[in-house]
């Protein structure tokens, strides 16, 4: 354990140079500018260190040497406590663990691992700066390595306010960092080959800063306080360097502010540029990496950039106005920035970001992934997002630099405060992917309403777009934006030297993004129509939710060739050559929705036809116009389509489970009611069963009207179980296949789980269909032909069914398994549904663009096979049904064929618009044919109902006796009674129905045969 304490007492008149209080555990104080420090190792492990001083508390200090070579400092598994007192009004107060201040260095390695640190200070009337840092390295040189890991540091500063210096400017900078690279004087050299790594560390900062009330009353008075909380504070030019932040957490804790951010308070509606210079301002800067010198901030403010002001700033601050980073590579991953508590109101001078941009950024790369910036409650729970990945407080120029942000929760993507931010260079780019950006009420109301915000009037983002570049300056995809007015601040983008939009670098490359939960439209970008000529916004799906589709933006063509020297004011737009397919697309959309709704209401096949077309239109390979025409009809696949593939699959499966459960519950209730009423019906209709007498030999062979009133049907027939459940499964299955296929091939964990659920649902339905189709009740169904004379009497006999499936009870229960086809074609009963589901599956596979031609022609092959089956076997009950099914398959196959041809021809071909028009016409024709199929089904239904009514009128006694036997609750006893009474005319006519009831009874087959023989062998029969 090592401890060093220094406690000094002095009055304010004592000169600092006379006492120079300081605290050190180790100090190497060389002869200034002469000595060499070479091949030194300083190692400290398993230590508890305490250092206190009113001015300077530096635990390990190496200073004043002219050169440091092969220096290594290694600190591990230790704890640190450093404190300062506000006893002496000095210029600065410094608290640090490691300080290396030499003129030049080479091959220096500083390592801090597994350390807990606590910095506390009362900053008092410090005139210039108060700082705390683990590693303070103000030197110049090459080949520096700083490695910090598993560190937890807390810095708490109280008091402190700027006081007037030289009767002109007052300034106080308070900073708490893990690494500080801030020169002590004016910059003369550049640091090269720096490698800075920070992993698995936490920095918690609390600063209480007050503004001074001692402001002079003349024009050049300016008082400001800057509070910096940063992991790395580098106010120095770097070259060929590397910075890594991994799993680093920065927490800024605010306390109640004692004064407003502006002093005196600004009038309503005024800004910093419009106010008198006799005022003060407080900045709270919170950033993982701060690369902006405070002098650059002041130098950006018009009116203060005077020779007198410049000399004052050079005296008060370190560095110059031009901090430059060249070929510096930065990686920030899995880092978080937190502000607490949430009930402290933030001011308009509180800025939060992961990186503050330097004055110059040239040939650099910055990659940020998995970021989280949030305001915390007092319990440490994230309440809302905050901050931006990049921000600029002064003038900044970004040249040939690649900025990348992926997977982050933020409130802005870029902001500028005092001066213009300039982007230039052939390889300049800013890529944003899978980012959630949500605006919240903020003191910076105007700036917070825009994804790219500017705080001051006249401040802009200036972008120079070079010629012949394959890159776009700004690339945004798979991101979500909420509660913003627009993407860009009004008039924010000042586009520099322009070429033709066809030949220059694009300003903005947009993938599919969501704006307030809906696909982003071109109107929310915030650029003028002329500036939109430099936007590339292609139609695409939202990658995280393929159910969301962005229609993109096609800029109007230029009326004449544009030379590189022209500016936006010379561009004239012409929309005459832009083809319009809006009418055909709208007709197709309306026809699709109508066909689907009518099909759902009628239970016909037109709903599946509409679902198939929607599946084709929402395919990853579908042309944009087909996607537009079917996007409004996605509800036909599932009412849960806005929730994405997860909602479609789970919603449809849930709907079926609820419907089938209610259907089965209804059957159970009906059975119970039928069982309770069985005895009453038996006594009323068959008194002989309880010793009474009934006359079955009435002259008309019928029964009394009283008994007819008691006629009932079986519960299965009345509830049509499971026929309605089978229909529900048929109509919901396309949505399950559509969403499940896209989820299964998405490569996402949640999507894969949804795909597995869809596969299980499909296998269950197939098993259920096969099991039900093999039951005895279905296998015994017979196709009963209508009399040809009755059919030929109709005006269009080829439109009528050739027969029907019986018996009636089986048809009511299992008609969906036989109804559409004639006798002998039972194996093709599910042909149409099977074809539709195959098409739905293939079209839902998200294939690369290069595979689209193959996908379309696979679909064409499916339709060709289906057409061959219809032509060869003619399975439908009505000849017209085969024709309509064939024409519908041809129309849908034509849609797939034209889409395949278009994928070969390409978007820019002269035949592209003609193909799109033909494709939309074919889509409209296919939906019109589906509507005709529904009309034909209704006509057949009405005709068959009339035929059944005629049969009932011709043979009432058969139906009455059959109903009485069924209503007795014991058909077998009723049949025995009738056979002993002797067969009447009514019994003979009712015999087929009575046998049907006998076959439906649950008893051994031999007993059924014996009863049947007993009935047949009566003399009357």
UniProtKB/TrEMBL annotation:
<protein>
    <submittedName>
        <fullName>Transmembrane protein, putative</fullName>
    </submittedName>
</protein>
<keyword id="KW-1133">Transmembrane helix</keyword>
<feature type="domain" description="Dispersed gene family protein 1 C-terminal">
    <location>
        <begin position="718"/>
        <end position="940"/>
    </location>
</feature>
<feature type="transmembrane region" description="Helical">
    <location>
        <begin position="726"/>
        <end position="744"/>
    </location>
</feature>
<dbReference type="InterPro" id="IPR021053">
    <property type="entry name" value="Dispersed_gene_fam_prot1_C"/>
</dbReference>
<feature type="transmembrane region" description="Helical">
    <location>
        <begin position="449"/>
        <end position="468"/>
    </location>
</feature>
<feature type="transmembrane region" description="Helical">
    <location>
        <begin position="582"/>
        <end position="601"/>
    </location>
</feature>
<feature type="transmembrane region" description="Helical">
    <location>
        <begin position="410"/>
        <end position="429"/>
    </location>
</feature>
<feature type="transmembrane region" description="Helical">
    <location>
        <begin position="750"/>
        <end position="770"/>
    </location>
</feature>
<dbReference type="Pfam" id="PF11040">
    <property type="entry name" value="DGF-1_C"/>
</dbReference>
<feature type="transmembrane region" description="Helical">
    <location>
        <begin position="646"/>
        <end position="667"/>
    </location>
</feature>
<feature type="transmembrane region" description="Helical">
    <location>
        <begin position="854"/>
        <end position="873"/>
    </location>
</feature>
<keyword id="KW-0812">Transmembrane</keyword>
<keyword id="KW-0472">Membrane</keyword>
<feature type="transmembrane region" description="Helical">
    <location>
        <begin position="917"/>
        <end position="943"/>
    </location>
</feature>
<feature type="transmembrane region" description="Helical">
    <location>
        <begin position="790"/>
        <end position="807"/>
    </location>
</feature>
<feature type="transmembrane region" description="Helical">
    <location>
        <begin position="885"/>
        <end position="905"/>
    </location>
</feature>
